[in-house]
Amino acid sequence: MNYRLYITLFFLLNIFSNSIFAQEKVIRLRLDEVIERAQANAPEVRIAKARRDRSRMTYDNQWLALKPLLRFNAQLPVYNRVTFPVTQPDGSQLFKRNQSLSSNFDVEISKTLAGTGGRVFASTGLRQRLDILPAEEGGNRNFYFSNPIYLGISQPIFGFNSFKWDKKILPMVLEEAEREYTEQLADIAQQAVTFFFDLYIAQLNLESAKRDKENADELYELAKNRFSVGKIAEADVLQMELGVMQAETRMASAELNIQSSSNDLRFFLGIGVMDKIVLVVPGGVPQYLVSPGLALEQARLNRKFTLTQNRQLTESERDIERVGKENGVDINIQAGFGLSRSDAHLGRAYSLPYEDQENISVGISVPIADWGRAKSQRQMAEADRELLEFTIEQENINFERNVLLKIRQLAIIRGQLAIAERTNEVAEKRYDITQKRYTVGKVDVTELNVALREQISARQGFTQALRDFWAAHYELQRLTLYDFENGASLVK
Protein backbone atom coordinates (compact mmCIF):
# COMPACT_ATOMS: atom_id res chain seq x y z
CA MET A 1 0.00 0.00 0.00
CA ASN A 2 1.39 3.36 -1.01
CA TYR A 3 1.10 5.41 2.24
CA ARG A 4 2.94 8.34 0.71
CA LEU A 5 0.22 8.66 -1.93
CA TYR A 6 -2.53 8.70 0.72
CA ILE A 7 -0.67 11.23 2.80
CA THR A 8 -0.13 13.46 -0.23
CA LEU A 9 -3.81 13.24 -1.20
CA PHE A 10 -4.84 14.02 2.39
CA PHE A 11 -2.78 17.19 2.50
CA LEU A 12 -3.97 18.28 -0.93
CA LEU A 13 -7.60 17.82 0.07
CA ASN A 14 -7.00 19.65 3.33
CA ILE A 15 -5.39 22.60 1.57
CA PHE A 16 -8.20 22.65 -1.01
CA SER A 17 -10.96 22.61 1.63
CA ASN A 18 -9.27 25.29 3.71
CA SER A 19 -8.93 27.50 0.66
CA ILE A 20 -12.64 27.12 -0.04
CA PHE A 21 -13.80 27.92 3.50
CA ALA A 22 -11.26 30.67 3.91
CA GLN A 23 -12.60 32.60 0.96
CA GLU A 24 -13.92 36.01 1.88
CA LYS A 25 -17.55 36.77 1.41
CA VAL A 26 -17.79 39.96 -0.61
CA ILE A 27 -20.54 42.37 0.49
CA ARG A 28 -21.34 45.20 -1.89
CA LEU A 29 -23.06 48.09 -0.18
CA ARG A 30 -24.55 51.31 -1.47
CA LEU A 31 -24.78 54.40 0.72
CA ASP A 32 -28.52 53.98 1.27
CA GLU A 33 -27.98 50.33 2.27
CA VAL A 34 -25.33 51.33 4.79
CA ILE A 35 -27.73 53.87 6.29
CA GLU A 36 -30.56 51.33 6.40
CA ARG A 37 -28.39 48.73 8.15
CA ALA A 38 -27.09 51.27 10.63
CA GLN A 39 -30.57 52.51 11.51
CA ALA A 40 -31.62 48.92 12.17
CA ASN A 41 -28.62 47.80 14.24
CA ALA A 42 -26.87 50.80 15.82
CA PRO A 43 -26.75 50.79 19.67
CA GLU A 44 -27.83 54.45 19.78
CA VAL A 45 -31.06 53.57 18.00
CA ARG A 46 -31.82 50.79 20.45
CA ILE A 47 -31.24 53.20 23.35
CA ALA A 48 -33.58 55.80 21.82
CA LYS A 49 -36.17 53.09 21.19
CA ALA A 50 -35.94 51.98 24.82
CA ARG A 51 -36.48 55.58 25.96
CA ARG A 52 -39.47 55.89 23.68
CA ASP A 53 -40.96 52.66 25.02
CA ARG A 54 -40.32 53.84 28.59
CA SER A 55 -42.18 57.09 27.89
CA ARG A 56 -45.07 55.11 26.45
CA MET A 57 -45.22 53.04 29.62
CA THR A 58 -45.19 56.18 31.78
CA TYR A 59 -47.97 57.67 29.68
CA ASP A 60 -50.08 54.51 29.86
CA ASN A 61 -49.42 54.13 33.59
CA GLN A 62 -50.64 57.67 34.28
CA TRP A 63 -53.97 56.98 32.62
CA LEU A 64 -54.23 53.64 34.35
CA ALA A 65 -54.04 55.57 37.63
CA LEU A 66 -57.33 57.22 36.66
CA LYS A 67 -59.08 53.91 36.14
CA PRO A 68 -61.34 52.58 38.91
CA LEU A 69 -59.49 50.63 41.60
CA LEU A 70 -61.07 47.63 43.33
CA ARG A 71 -59.43 46.83 46.64
CA PHE A 72 -59.93 44.36 49.48
CA ASN A 73 -58.99 45.62 52.95
CA ALA A 74 -58.83 43.60 56.15
CA GLN A 75 -57.45 43.61 59.67
CA LEU A 76 -57.27 40.12 61.11
CA PRO A 77 -57.10 40.31 64.12
CA VAL A 78 -56.67 43.36 66.41
CA TYR A 79 -56.00 42.52 70.04
CA ASN A 80 -56.45 45.09 72.85
CA ARG A 81 -55.85 44.75 76.57
CA VAL A 82 -56.41 48.02 78.36
CA THR A 83 -57.48 49.52 81.66
CA PHE A 84 -59.97 52.37 81.36
CA PRO A 85 -61.91 54.57 83.79
CA VAL A 86 -65.69 54.12 84.30
CA THR A 87 -67.65 56.95 85.92
CA GLN A 88 -69.93 55.74 88.74
CA PRO A 89 -73.36 57.19 89.63
CA ASP A 90 -71.87 59.07 92.55
CA GLY A 91 -69.30 60.66 90.27
CA SER A 92 -66.38 58.57 91.34
CA GLN A 93 -64.09 56.75 88.93
CA LEU A 94 -63.74 52.99 88.82
CA PHE A 95 -60.95 51.53 86.75
CA LYS A 96 -61.77 48.36 84.87
CA ARG A 97 -59.58 46.02 82.87
CA ASN A 98 -60.75 44.87 79.44
CA GLN A 99 -59.56 42.48 76.75
CA SER A 100 -60.95 42.42 73.20
CA LEU A 101 -60.26 40.79 69.89
CA SER A 102 -61.59 42.54 66.79
CA SER A 103 -61.41 42.09 63.05
CA ASN A 104 -62.84 43.83 59.99
CA PHE A 105 -62.83 43.67 56.22
CA ASP A 106 -64.37 45.53 53.32
CA VAL A 107 -64.31 45.68 49.54
CA GLU A 108 -63.95 49.17 48.07
CA ILE A 109 -64.04 50.56 44.57
CA SER A 110 -62.69 54.07 44.06
CA LYS A 111 -61.92 56.45 41.22
CA THR A 112 -59.92 59.64 40.94
CA LEU A 113 -61.60 62.52 39.13
CA ALA A 114 -58.98 63.99 36.81
CA GLY A 115 -60.98 67.13 36.07
CA THR A 116 -61.42 68.19 39.71
CA GLY A 117 -58.75 66.26 41.58
CA GLY A 118 -61.37 64.68 43.83
CA ARG A 119 -62.09 61.08 44.71
CA VAL A 120 -65.31 59.06 44.84
CA PHE A 121 -65.67 55.61 46.32
CA ALA A 122 -68.17 52.91 47.28
CA SER A 123 -67.61 50.08 49.74
CA THR A 124 -69.27 47.18 51.47
CA GLY A 125 -68.05 45.05 54.32
CA LEU A 126 -68.08 43.98 57.92
CA ARG A 127 -66.72 47.01 59.66
CA GLN A 128 -66.08 45.21 62.90
CA ARG A 129 -66.44 41.98 64.70
CA LEU A 130 -65.69 42.57 68.36
CA ASP A 131 -65.06 39.77 70.85
CA ILE A 132 -64.98 40.84 74.48
CA LEU A 133 -62.73 38.27 76.06
CA PRO A 134 -63.23 36.91 79.59
CA ALA A 135 -62.16 39.56 82.07
CA GLU A 136 -62.32 39.81 85.81
CA GLU A 137 -66.10 39.79 85.63
CA GLY A 138 -68.43 38.15 83.12
CA GLY A 139 -67.74 35.97 80.10
CA ASN A 140 -67.43 36.24 76.34
CA ARG A 141 -69.53 38.76 74.39
CA ASN A 142 -69.62 39.13 70.59
CA PHE A 143 -70.74 42.13 68.53
CA TYR A 144 -71.01 42.67 64.75
CA PHE A 145 -71.19 45.98 62.93
CA SER A 146 -71.96 45.82 59.19
CA ASN A 147 -71.88 48.35 56.36
CA PRO A 148 -73.72 46.78 53.41
CA ILE A 149 -73.22 49.94 51.37
CA TYR A 150 -71.32 53.14 51.84
CA LEU A 151 -70.79 55.94 49.26
CA GLY A 152 -68.39 58.81 49.70
CA ILE A 153 -66.62 61.69 48.02
CA SER A 154 -63.60 63.80 48.88
CA GLN A 155 -63.19 67.02 46.93
CA PRO A 156 -60.67 69.85 47.33
CA ILE A 157 -62.11 73.18 46.23
CA PHE A 158 -59.07 75.40 45.75
CA GLY A 159 -56.34 72.76 45.88
CA PHE A 160 -53.71 72.08 43.22
CA ASN A 161 -54.89 69.44 40.73
CA SER A 162 -51.81 67.60 39.42
CA PHE A 163 -53.94 65.29 37.26
CA LYS A 164 -55.17 68.23 35.18
CA TRP A 165 -51.61 69.23 34.34
CA ASP A 166 -50.47 65.65 33.75
CA LYS A 167 -53.22 65.38 31.15
CA LYS A 168 -51.54 68.25 29.26
CA ILE A 169 -47.89 67.43 29.86
CA LEU A 170 -47.66 63.64 29.49
CA PRO A 171 -48.77 63.58 25.81
CA MET A 172 -46.00 66.13 25.13
CA VAL A 173 -43.44 63.92 26.87
CA LEU A 174 -44.59 60.93 24.81
CA GLU A 175 -44.38 62.88 21.56
CA GLU A 176 -40.91 64.13 22.53
CA ALA A 177 -39.76 60.53 22.89
CA GLU A 178 -41.17 59.70 19.45
CA ARG A 179 -39.36 62.66 17.90
CA GLU A 180 -36.14 61.81 19.73
CA TYR A 181 -36.27 58.37 18.15
CA THR A 182 -36.70 59.91 14.68
CA GLU A 183 -33.88 62.37 15.34
CA GLN A 184 -31.64 59.51 16.43
CA LEU A 185 -32.30 57.77 13.12
CA ALA A 186 -31.25 60.97 11.33
CA ASP A 187 -28.11 61.17 13.49
CA ILE A 188 -27.27 57.58 12.60
CA ALA A 189 -27.68 58.39 8.89
CA GLN A 190 -25.18 61.21 9.23
CA GLN A 191 -22.73 58.95 11.07
CA ALA A 192 -23.19 56.32 8.35
CA VAL A 193 -22.11 58.87 5.73
CA THR A 194 -18.89 59.47 7.68
CA PHE A 195 -18.04 55.77 8.00
CA PHE A 196 -19.06 55.08 4.38
CA PHE A 197 -16.80 57.74 2.88
CA ASP A 198 -13.94 57.00 5.25
CA LEU A 199 -13.82 53.51 3.78
CA TYR A 200 -14.67 54.63 0.24
CA ILE A 201 -11.85 57.18 0.17
CA ALA A 202 -9.51 54.57 1.64
CA GLN A 203 -10.49 52.14 -1.15
CA LEU A 204 -9.94 54.80 -3.81
CA ASN A 205 -6.58 55.71 -2.31
CA LEU A 206 -5.53 52.07 -2.32
CA GLU A 207 -6.55 51.64 -5.96
CA SER A 208 -4.70 54.81 -6.90
CA ALA A 209 -1.67 53.79 -4.89
CA LYS A 210 -1.54 50.44 -6.68
CA ARG A 211 -1.85 52.14 -10.06
CA ASP A 212 0.79 54.70 -9.11
CA LYS A 213 3.09 51.88 -8.02
CA GLU A 214 2.66 50.12 -11.37
CA ASN A 215 3.35 53.37 -13.23
CA ALA A 216 6.37 54.09 -11.03
CA ASP A 217 7.81 50.63 -11.68
CA GLU A 218 7.29 51.04 -15.42
CA LEU A 219 8.89 54.49 -15.47
CA TYR A 220 11.78 53.28 -13.34
CA GLU A 221 12.52 50.44 -15.77
CA LEU A 222 12.26 52.88 -18.66
CA ALA A 223 14.67 55.28 -16.92
CA LYS A 224 17.21 52.52 -16.31
CA ASN A 225 17.10 51.53 -19.99
CA ARG A 226 17.60 55.13 -21.08
CA PHE A 227 20.44 55.60 -18.63
CA SER A 228 22.14 52.47 -19.95
CA VAL A 229 22.25 53.99 -23.43
CA GLY A 230 23.25 57.42 -22.12
CA LYS A 231 20.03 59.29 -22.92
CA ILE A 232 19.37 60.57 -19.37
CA ALA A 233 21.45 61.41 -16.34
CA GLU A 234 21.82 59.24 -13.27
CA ALA A 235 19.89 61.86 -11.24
CA ASP A 236 16.82 61.12 -13.33
CA VAL A 237 17.15 57.40 -12.59
CA LEU A 238 17.45 58.13 -8.89
CA GLN A 239 14.38 60.34 -9.13
CA MET A 240 12.43 57.45 -10.67
CA GLU A 241 13.68 55.09 -7.96
CA LEU A 242 12.59 57.59 -5.36
CA GLY A 243 9.17 57.67 -7.02
CA VAL A 244 8.93 53.87 -6.70
CA MET A 245 9.68 54.01 -2.97
CA GLN A 246 7.19 56.84 -2.46
CA ALA A 247 4.53 54.84 -4.29
CA GLU A 248 5.26 51.82 -2.07
CA THR A 249 4.90 54.03 1.02
CA ARG A 250 1.57 55.41 -0.20
CA MET A 251 0.30 51.91 -0.94
CA ALA A 252 1.28 50.61 2.51
CA SER A 253 -0.39 53.61 4.15
CA ALA A 254 -3.52 53.10 2.03
CA GLU A 255 -3.70 49.42 3.03
CA LEU A 256 -3.44 50.37 6.71
CA ASN A 257 -6.17 53.01 6.33
CA ILE A 258 -8.50 50.63 4.56
CA GLN A 259 -8.14 48.04 7.32
CA SER A 260 -8.93 50.64 9.99
CA SER A 261 -11.89 52.07 8.07
CA SER A 262 -13.24 48.59 7.30
CA ASN A 263 -13.15 47.62 10.97
CA ASP A 264 -14.96 50.84 11.95
CA LEU A 265 -17.72 50.23 9.42
CA ARG A 266 -18.01 46.53 10.34
CA PHE A 267 -18.48 47.41 13.99
CA PHE A 268 -20.97 50.14 13.11
CA LEU A 269 -23.06 47.79 10.97
CA GLY A 270 -22.45 44.53 12.82
CA ILE A 271 -20.79 42.78 9.85
CA GLY A 272 -18.50 39.77 10.36
CA VAL A 273 -14.75 40.28 10.28
CA MET A 274 -14.32 37.68 7.52
CA ASP A 275 -16.56 39.57 5.13
CA LYS A 276 -15.00 41.90 2.58
CA ILE A 277 -16.85 45.17 2.07
CA VAL A 278 -16.94 46.82 -1.33
CA LEU A 279 -18.68 50.18 -1.42
CA VAL A 280 -20.65 51.49 -4.37
CA VAL A 281 -20.68 55.26 -4.41
CA PRO A 282 -23.83 57.02 -5.64
CA GLY A 283 -23.60 57.66 -9.37
CA GLY A 284 -24.75 61.25 -9.01
CA VAL A 285 -25.99 63.69 -6.44
CA PRO A 286 -29.67 64.63 -6.08
CA GLN A 287 -30.62 67.88 -7.73
CA TYR A 288 -33.14 69.72 -5.59
CA LEU A 289 -33.71 73.25 -4.40
CA VAL A 290 -34.16 74.03 -0.71
CA SER A 291 -36.61 76.76 0.20
CA PRO A 292 -35.49 78.49 3.43
CA GLY A 293 -39.11 79.08 4.39
CA LEU A 294 -40.01 75.42 3.92
CA ALA A 295 -36.91 74.28 5.80
CA LEU A 296 -37.71 76.46 8.82
CA GLU A 297 -41.37 75.43 8.76
CA GLN A 298 -40.54 71.72 8.67
CA ALA A 299 -37.90 72.13 11.39
CA ARG A 300 -40.45 73.73 13.72
CA LEU A 301 -43.03 71.07 12.95
CA ASN A 302 -40.77 68.04 13.15
CA ARG A 303 -37.96 68.68 15.60
CA LYS A 304 -38.21 67.68 19.23
CA PHE A 305 -36.98 71.04 20.50
CA THR A 306 -40.30 72.71 19.61
CA LEU A 307 -42.21 70.16 21.68
CA THR A 308 -39.67 70.51 24.48
CA GLN A 309 -40.13 74.25 24.55
CA ASN A 310 -43.93 73.95 24.67
CA ARG A 311 -43.67 71.39 27.47
CA GLN A 312 -41.31 73.60 29.45
CA LEU A 313 -43.68 76.57 29.10
CA THR A 314 -46.61 74.42 30.23
CA GLU A 315 -44.62 73.13 33.20
CA SER A 316 -43.76 76.70 34.19
CA GLU A 317 -47.48 77.58 34.14
CA ARG A 318 -48.12 74.52 36.32
CA ASP A 319 -45.44 75.58 38.80
CA ILE A 320 -46.86 79.08 39.07
CA GLU A 321 -50.33 77.69 39.76
CA ARG A 322 -48.98 75.19 42.29
CA VAL A 323 -47.18 77.93 44.25
CA GLY A 324 -50.34 80.03 44.32
CA LYS A 325 -52.71 77.27 45.42
CA GLU A 326 -50.42 75.56 47.91
CA ASN A 327 -49.95 78.87 49.75
CA GLY A 328 -53.56 80.06 49.49
CA VAL A 329 -56.91 79.19 51.01
CA ASP A 330 -57.52 75.45 51.14
CA ILE A 331 -61.01 74.03 51.45
CA ASN A 332 -61.69 70.32 51.42
CA ILE A 333 -65.17 68.78 51.44
CA GLN A 334 -65.83 65.21 52.46
CA ALA A 335 -69.27 63.62 52.44
CA GLY A 336 -70.65 60.14 52.73
CA PHE A 337 -73.84 58.16 52.99
CA GLY A 338 -74.35 54.54 53.94
CA LEU A 339 -76.42 51.89 55.64
CA SER A 340 -75.36 50.01 58.78
CA ARG A 341 -76.52 47.72 61.52
CA SER A 342 -75.04 46.13 64.63
CA ASP A 343 -76.06 42.95 66.41
CA ALA A 344 -74.69 40.16 68.51
CA HIS A 345 -75.35 37.70 65.69
CA LEU A 346 -73.78 37.94 62.25
CA GLY A 347 -76.95 37.05 60.32
CA ARG A 348 -79.04 39.73 62.02
CA ALA A 349 -76.27 42.27 61.41
CA TYR A 350 -77.07 41.92 57.69
CA SER A 351 -80.88 41.93 57.92
CA LEU A 352 -83.47 44.70 57.75
CA PRO A 353 -84.06 47.24 59.01
CA TYR A 354 -80.80 49.12 58.46
CA GLU A 355 -79.88 52.40 60.00
CA ASP A 356 -78.74 55.14 57.70
CA GLN A 357 -75.56 57.08 58.41
CA GLU A 358 -74.42 60.35 56.93
CA ASN A 359 -71.39 62.47 57.42
CA ILE A 360 -70.13 65.69 55.91
CA SER A 361 -67.17 67.76 56.81
CA VAL A 362 -65.67 70.95 55.48
CA GLY A 363 -62.03 71.61 56.27
CA ILE A 364 -60.68 75.11 55.84
CA SER A 365 -57.07 76.24 56.00
CA VAL A 366 -56.37 79.96 55.67
CA PRO A 367 -52.79 81.29 55.85
CA ILE A 368 -52.62 84.34 58.09
CA ALA A 369 -48.93 85.24 58.12
CA ASP A 370 -46.04 83.50 56.38
CA TRP A 371 -43.55 86.39 56.53
CA GLY A 372 -43.30 86.69 52.76
CA ARG A 373 -42.69 83.02 51.94
CA ALA A 374 -45.60 82.68 49.50
CA LYS A 375 -44.70 85.95 47.76
CA SER A 376 -41.07 84.89 47.42
CA GLN A 377 -41.99 81.50 45.96
CA ARG A 378 -44.39 83.14 43.50
CA GLN A 379 -41.75 85.65 42.40
CA MET A 380 -39.21 82.85 41.89
CA ALA A 381 -41.68 80.88 39.77
CA GLU A 382 -42.45 83.96 37.67
CA ALA A 383 -38.73 84.73 37.29
CA ASP A 384 -38.10 81.17 36.13
CA ARG A 385 -40.88 81.57 33.58
CA GLU A 386 -39.38 84.84 32.28
CA LEU A 387 -35.90 83.30 32.05
CA LEU A 388 -37.34 80.32 30.17
CA GLU A 389 -39.05 82.61 27.64
CA PHE A 390 -35.80 84.49 27.00
CA THR A 391 -33.88 81.21 26.64
CA ILE A 392 -36.43 79.79 24.19
CA GLU A 393 -36.36 82.98 22.14
CA GLN A 394 -32.56 82.81 21.85
CA GLU A 395 -32.63 79.07 21.07
CA ASN A 396 -35.05 79.71 18.21
CA ILE A 397 -32.87 82.49 16.80
CA ASN A 398 -29.74 80.33 16.94
CA PHE A 399 -31.52 77.35 15.44
CA GLU A 400 -32.93 79.36 12.54
CA ARG A 401 -29.48 80.77 11.84
CA ASN A 402 -28.02 77.28 11.85
CA VAL A 403 -30.65 75.97 9.41
CA LEU A 404 -30.17 78.90 7.02
CA LEU A 405 -26.39 78.48 7.26
CA LYS A 406 -26.65 74.79 6.34
CA ILE A 407 -28.81 75.67 3.34
CA ARG A 408 -26.20 78.11 2.06
CA GLN A 409 -23.40 75.65 2.76
CA LEU A 410 -25.19 72.93 0.80
CA ALA A 411 -25.50 75.22 -2.23
CA ILE A 412 -21.81 76.16 -2.03
CA ILE A 413 -20.70 72.54 -1.59
CA ARG A 414 -22.80 71.50 -4.60
CA GLY A 415 -20.94 74.08 -6.73
CA GLN A 416 -17.58 72.99 -5.31
CA LEU A 417 -18.40 69.38 -6.13
CA ALA A 418 -19.02 70.22 -9.78
CA ILE A 419 -15.70 72.09 -9.96
CA ALA A 420 -13.84 69.29 -8.14
CA GLU A 421 -15.28 66.67 -10.49
CA ARG A 422 -14.17 68.59 -13.56
CA THR A 423 -10.75 69.30 -11.99
CA ASN A 424 -10.27 65.60 -11.37
CA GLU A 425 -11.14 64.75 -14.97
CA VAL A 426 -8.67 67.38 -16.29
CA ALA A 427 -5.90 66.27 -13.92
CA GLU A 428 -6.35 62.60 -14.88
CA LYS A 429 -6.21 63.44 -18.58
CA ARG A 430 -3.20 65.73 -18.13
CA TYR A 431 -1.27 63.06 -16.24
CA ASP A 432 -1.99 60.44 -18.92
CA ILE A 433 -0.81 62.81 -21.63
CA THR A 434 2.29 63.82 -19.66
CA GLN A 435 3.16 60.18 -18.96
CA LYS A 436 2.94 59.33 -22.65
CA ARG A 437 5.07 62.35 -23.58
CA TYR A 438 7.65 61.35 -20.97
CA THR A 439 7.74 57.86 -22.45
CA VAL A 440 8.73 59.25 -25.83
CA GLY A 441 11.15 61.73 -24.23
CA LYS A 442 9.31 65.01 -24.89
CA VAL A 443 9.09 66.10 -21.21
CA ASP A 444 11.44 65.65 -18.28
CA VAL A 445 10.83 63.93 -14.98
CA THR A 446 10.10 67.18 -13.14
CA GLU A 447 7.06 67.93 -15.27
CA LEU A 448 5.88 64.33 -14.89
CA ASN A 449 6.08 64.57 -11.08
CA VAL A 450 4.17 67.86 -11.13
CA ALA A 451 1.39 66.22 -13.16
CA LEU A 452 1.34 63.26 -10.76
CA ARG A 453 1.01 65.51 -7.69
CA GLU A 454 -1.76 67.49 -9.35
CA GLN A 455 -3.57 64.28 -10.21
CA ILE A 456 -3.37 63.02 -6.61
CA SER A 457 -4.49 66.37 -5.23
CA ALA A 458 -7.41 66.60 -7.68
CA ARG A 459 -8.55 63.07 -6.87
CA GLN A 460 -8.47 63.77 -3.13
CA GLY A 461 -10.30 67.05 -3.64
CA PHE A 462 -13.07 65.36 -5.61
CA THR A 463 -13.65 62.57 -3.11
CA GLN A 464 -13.61 65.07 -0.24
CA ALA A 465 -16.14 67.28 -2.04
CA LEU A 466 -18.35 64.24 -2.65
CA ARG A 467 -18.15 63.37 1.03
CA ASP A 468 -18.90 66.98 2.05
CA PHE A 469 -22.00 67.05 -0.12
CA TRP A 470 -23.56 63.90 1.34
CA ALA A 471 -22.63 64.98 4.85
CA ALA A 472 -24.35 68.34 4.27
CA HIS A 473 -27.33 66.59 2.65
CA TYR A 474 -27.96 64.40 5.69
CA GLU A 475 -27.09 67.19 8.13
CA LEU A 476 -29.91 69.29 6.66
CA GLN A 477 -32.21 66.27 6.96
CA ARG A 478 -31.19 65.90 10.59
CA LEU A 479 -31.90 69.55 11.35
CA THR A 480 -35.31 69.58 9.68
CA LEU A 481 -36.37 65.90 9.71
CA TYR A 482 -37.48 66.49 6.14
CA ASP A 483 -36.43 64.76 2.92
CA PHE A 484 -36.09 67.58 0.37
CA GLU A 485 -35.24 65.16 -2.42
CA ASN A 486 -38.59 63.33 -2.15
CA GLY A 487 -40.56 66.14 -0.48
CA ALA A 488 -41.60 64.06 2.55
CA SER A 489 -41.35 64.43 6.31
CA LEU A 490 -39.24 61.87 8.18
CA VAL A 491 -41.68 61.95 11.13
CA LYS A 492 -44.04 58.99 10.95
Helix-strand layout with pairing:
Elements: H1 3-21, E1 25-30, H2 31-41, H3 43-64, E2 69-87, E3 93-112, E4 119-132, E5 141-156, H4 162-228, H5 234-269, E6 275-280, H6 292-302, H7 304-326, E7 330-343, H8 346-349, E8 355-365, H9 373-439, H10 445-480, E9 482-483, E10 488-489
Helix pairs in contact: 2-4, 3-4, 4-5, 4-7, 4-10, 6-9, 7-9, 9-10
Specify the biggest β-sheet: 6 strands, antiparallel
User: How much is the radius of gyration in Å?
Assistant: 42 Å
What helical percentage do the residues reach? 55-70%
Give the structural class.
alpha+beta
Widest sheet, order of strands: 2-3-4-5-7-8
Q: Name the average pLDDT.
A: 82
Number of helices: 10
Distance between the termini: 74 Å
β content, as a range? 15-25%
**Helix-strand string:** HEHHEEEEHHEHHEHEHHEE
Shape: elongated
Query: What is the β-strand count?
Result: 10
Q: Provide the low-confidence segments as ranges.
A: 3-22
